[in-house]
Amino acid sequence: MSAIVWAFLGDTRRFPSSAQAVRHTGLDVTVYSSDAKRTPGHLSHQGPPMLRWALFEAGHQGSRLSSPDHQYYADVAARIDANRAALSVARKLTRCSHHILRRLGDRAYAPVPATGR
Q1: Residues 6+ apart with CB under 8 A from 73
Q2: Cα separation of 19 and 79, whole Å?
Q3: Potential cystine with 59: which of 50, 51, 67, 89 (Cβ 3.0-4.6 Å)?
Q4: Which tens digits make up the pLDDT trace of 26-47?
Q5: Where are the domains of the chain?
Q6: How far is 28 from 46, CA to CA, in rounded Å?
Q7: C-alpha to C-alpha distance for 60 and 38, rounded to whole angstroms
Q8: CA separation, residue 81 to residues 3, 15, 34, 75, 85 (Å)
Q9: What is the pTM of this model?
């Protein structure tokens, strides 16, 4: 999962905020409003489908008791449902990935030194 996130998010310094990184993944909720009528929000589905899939699958891992995001997942799942909880965790993982890659800067893309095997 981390290789997919790293490959598809790329250099996160191009995103001014983590919300823009979430928007890039297509996991953001869009709302169409015209006059006084509003449709319920749905995922924008913009961005790489493989990235969205990997983050959603990683979000489902929040249901495990050993997951650091388990309490967050359980709270959202109790309020709404398991799929929405996985989406919420996926958005949280995207924000965390954005901040980690941004903090690493150029070191995130430096070649790994070869081992002498």
Answers
A1: 59, 62, 63, 67, 85, 86, 88, 89
A2: 23
A3: 89
A4: 998 877 666 656 566 778 888 8
A5: 2-109
A6: 9
A7: 29
A8: 28, 30, 28, 10, 6
A9: 0.84
